């Protein structure tokens, strides 16, 4: 079960770009969640969710903006791998933007998928997160919600795993 007290999704569509915005809350303090979910995801996620992600490697760059990472999915997954480019990483404002540029998750229907994640501290000591994803479709292709549902569910599963790990290990990523 997701520890979210609030989970809101909205959708907007403009010529060739479908945008989803999700808001969520977590009991984990924002800086701690940002460290685990964003800054150390390449190490943490394959460790705590090996059934989903086999490995993540930097194929170009130093891990900062402009770098390209390849995420290899576990055997039995719908997809083999994806490559994404880091567009922006701001540790102070806890924002992260990246674009999925290659891989079978694009399903021959999408040019790319851009993601922007922002975490903010909430008054209760946890955090509020906002995730915006923009699906850039290939010309003449219409994307349906069910096309991207499994990817969104996988991402939610990874988030839940990171959150559960942090709740169970209060000294990690402090």
UniProtKB/TrEMBL annotation:
Residues 15-169 form the Bet v I/Major latex protein domain. It holds the Pfam family Bet_v_1. InterPro entries: Bet_v_I/MLP, Bet_v_I_allergen, Plant_def-hormone_signal, START-like_dom_sf. GO terms for molecular function: abscisic acid binding; protein phosphatase inhibitor activity; signaling receptor activity. Coiled coil: none annotated. GO terms for cellular component: cytoplasm; nucleus. GO terms for biological process: abscisic acid-activated signaling pathway; defense response. CDD domains: Bet_v1-like (cd07816). PANTHER family: MAJOR ALLERGEN PRU AR 1-LIKE, OS08G0374000 PROTEIN-RELATED. Belongs to the BetVI family. This is Putative major allergen Pru ar 1. It comes from Davidia involucrata (Dove tree). The lineage of its organism: Eukaryota, Viridiplantae, Streptophyta, Embryophyta, Tracheophyta.
